[in-house]
Amino acid sequence: MAQFRKKPVIVEAEQFWPDKPLPFNERGPVVEYDGEFFVITIHNEKAHLAPGDWVILEPRGPINNAYPCKPDIFAANYSPAADGIPVPKAALERVTAWVADWCNGGDDGFDDLCADIIACRAWLRTVGQEIESHE
Question: Which residue range is the domain that position 57 belongs to?
């Protein structure tokens, strides 16, 4: 049988709770209660929602297209897009400024530059490992 890898894509999703409106309701699916079940409409078909289900907006396509996803399936297939890897912005800015200064003939602060490069390199390794873990 052929094997397939899920493409990495960032989606917008919110967990459904009956007492809280979905934050993207103004541009996303409308959740209705039909007297027995909570439902959303997906491509003109009704889908049941249970408390705790995730509602995922389709990343491309018409507005209001979304689909439900059970929490265990969501957890197995998605992780937060930020993933908590802090970008060393100050170090990146200092490296950029040092390179620009060096290109213009300056050479001050080489020792500080080395420390910033090490910080940036550690960050890039972390990002690379995170990317590899999702492939």
Answer: 13-77
